[in-house]
TrEMBL record:
Residues 655-682 are annotated as: Disordered. Pfam families: SSF. It is a multi-pass membrane protein. GO terms for molecular function: urea transmembrane transporter activity. This is Urea active transporter. The chain crosses the membrane at residues 22-42, 63-82, 102-120, 146-171, 177-196, 208-227, 266-287, 299-327, 364-390, 411-433, 439-460, 467-487, 507-527, 577-595, 615-636. Residues 655-676 have a biased composition (Low complexity). Keywords: Membrane, Transmembrane, Transmembrane helix. PANTHER family: ACTIVE TRANSPORTER, PUTATIVE (AFU_ORTHOLOGUE AFUA_1G17570)-RELATED, PTHR46154. The keyword Transmembrane applies.
Amino acid sequence: MDPFLTARDGAAVMVEPPLSQAVGYIVVVLVGFVIAFLMILVTQLLKRTSGEDNTKTEMFMTANRSVTTGLTASAVVSSWLWSTAMLGSTLVGYVNGVSGPFWFAAGCSPMIVFFAVLGISCKRKIPEAHTLLEIVRIRYGKSAHIVYMVLCLINNLIAVANMILGASAVITAMTGMHIIAATFLLPAGVAMYTFFGGIKATFLTDYLHTFIIMIILCYFSIKAFTLEEVGSMSNLFELVKAAGERSPVSGNEGGSYLTMTSKGGLLFGILHICANFGLVIMDTSFFQKSFSASPKAVVPGYVIGGIAYFAIPWFIGTLASSVVLGLEDNPIFPTYPRRMSSTEVSNGLVLPYFAMTVAGKGGAVGILLITFMAVTSTLSAQIIAVSSIISFDIYRTYLKPKALDADIIRWCHYGVIFFALFASGFSTMLHYVGINLGWTLYMLGVLTCPGIFPTTFTILWRRQSKVAAIVSPLLGMATGIAVWLGSAYALYGEVTIVSTGMTYPCVYGTVASAFSPLPYTVIITLCRPEDFDWSRFRGEKLAFEVDHHAPKGGEAAVLEEELDHANLRDQPHLKRWGRIAGIWALATFLGHWVLWPLPMYASKYIFSSGFYTAWLVVGVIWLWITLLIVGFYPIIDGRAQLWEVWIAIREGKVSKSSVSISGSSTGDDSTPSTTASDEKPR
């Protein structure tokens, strides 16, 4: 949200939906359930041909820790390809100009790549983990476990609410479908395929949805310039330049939309990178995907996915907001003769109006599809993450420590259903109290950031004490909320939804929430530091494939033997990957957040026509490369299993072998793949 929006007409003025309600229900209900049904069939096919049995906890929750690099990279892109990534980047582009989408993208890619450091460290230190919270419990005990459980659940809930609020508003605007119907129906199909397929179904659905989304986005990247009113990149530059002259932006150099010297853009960039570090590090779904990846797929998967992702919010946000700003005073624009209202902007309708402008009803259908695909794909990861907390960290830890494999699967199913319903209900409550995408996009960091440093230190710093780990995030959250609400009152004289959604209170609150735990945890630790022995992690037996009643040499016994063997064998290999991850994380942060944007901010440069054209050309090339990575790399990388499935189908064979525990179809030959069939005959 931005102060200039509050001066606009805040009434809920909307354009007539270009599509009928029937189209909305067909996409949300029919397409959702068709995809769910296809994923269930794929799950059963993999069980018959590759031995991937989703009635076993390890397969359901971690895909037997065997996902390859290509599928991991695709899943990483999908994890951040929220509906709000596209809607939010166009929103801040409309408000701040070209700086907005850039800072949106720069607030995502560095921490995705940084997560490779945490992911590979977890692989090395505690390879049998299922959730982040298991790591916290083993190191600090049950008090810390409960504190971090609450932090993670808050993170998941506010993230899902942000997704659903944005997606429901767009679906309603495109079809006239009742917003509450969309809110409750969106998670329905997701819950179905997640219920049956577990984490592997999430990976596969991530791939399918992301591939479709990228095809549609690449279509828009070309279609926009076929519109007569746009015509070319240089003409689009003139349109955006004229928009800045008609409605100059406060805080931008010369009031222009065509500059990185934007005070509002920079403030959003600071807010966004802090908030997203919290969203990544405190999101158990990111940890689950790293646990599910094979050891040599974690770092390249997260690095490739993180860098490829950058193009999506950057280019699409720039293109869509530029077209909307340039054509807002043109009769072909949906809201003509008025500008977009504050309600429309805050509901994330800049991108839908862009699509309607350049492609009519076809554009509306495209936005409806990508919104649906994006929100259901990311919802599946969130749902499986929360179900893992319910099953492993609540049920197995506190209710039934000796739970059997079937008990955990049953509680995973309970968790899937419960969280899908609860998230829909919570999002409905937010809607009725007047909270929308714009508000959650700006303030979510206040709640998601307190655990950033304590959680990172839990995995990387042996000295952090138990007291510091427990107290610092609680103090950080209290500090962040106090600064957020206090700033809103001090600056605007009241604490309301409007004042607490303004830029300055959200930036101050998010920064305080993110960084105050750092001195808290360091000071508390220095008073009484600990020296944690990392080998305690490897001494914990967390893998749940053991069946004591199975015959000797059975699948469970072989799987356990492979895990033990892989843990010992891969240590030097994983340390090397850890160093590589650290180098890439630092390089990505310096490139995307420091060396590229900050000199441009300081230069007070206003884009020329040639520079703006080059800006868009680089963006569109990057976007199409991302399409190739998420669409075709998983197929190339997973060709061995695809061939295995095809042979099994053609010859009518049913394999009982399980997939590799530590290998993938491609990768570093220095760490050979070990499968059950290599270790022991069936």
